[in-house]
Design goal:
The relative contact order is 0.23. By secondary structure, this protein is an alpha+beta fold. The protein contains four helices and five strands; from the N terminus they run ααββαββαβ. The protein has a single domain, classed as Phosphatidylinositol 3-kinase Catalytic Subunit, Chain A, domain 1 (Ubiquitin-like (UB roll), Roll), CATH 3.10.20.90. The chain has a five-stranded mixed sheet with strand order 2-1-5-3-4.
Length: 117
C-alpha cells in the first residue's frame, strides 16, 4: 500500500480532496509520487503533484529528477500503481483515465537503477 494512503486512511476524505482539486483545476491531473520503500533515492519535499494533462512520461521523469537534484548517472523508473512501467512517450491524460485509483489520484512509484557511461 502507498504511504500516502497510510497517512490518509479515510477513502472518503481522499476522494473528496481529489474531487475538489479536479473541480478547481480541470486541466490538471492529481498525481501522488512516492519513492519505493528501501530505495536510497532522496525524498521529495512534496509527494502530490498537479501536472498538465498533455505532459508525457519523459517530462514527468524530468520534473521529478530536478526536484530530487538527482545525479546524471542515476536512472529513474516510474511505475503507475506500483506495477505498470510508465513509458516515456505516454501521455499522462491517457494514463490517468486508464489507471487512476478509485480515490481519483494517479499513484506513481519511483525506483532507481545505477548506470555507467
Amino acid at each position: 500500500m502507498h504511504s500516502y494512503k497510510l497517512k490518509n486512511p479515510s477513502f472518503e476524505k481522499r476522494e473528496d480532496d481529489c474531487k475538489k482539486v479536479l473541480t478547481r483545476y480541470p486541466d490538471k491531473i492529481p498525481v501522488i509520487c512516492e519513492i519505493k520503500e528501501g530505495s536510497d533515492l532522496p525524498q521529495l519535499e512534496k509527494c502530490m503533484f498537479l501536472i498538465p494533462t498533455e505532459m508525457t512520461g519523459h517530462q514527468l521523469n524530468y520534473v521529478i529528477r530536478k526536484r530530487m537534484k538527482l545525479e546524471e548517472n542515476k536512472s529513474l523508473f516510474l511505475f503507475v500503481n506500483s506495477r505498470y512501467l510508465l513509458k516515456g512517450d505516454s501521455v499522462m491524460a491517457e494514463e490517468y483515465s486508464n489507471k487512476k485509483d478509485m480515490d481519483g489520484y494517479l499513484y506513481v512509484t519511483i525506483t532507481q537503477e545505477s548506470t555507467t557511461g
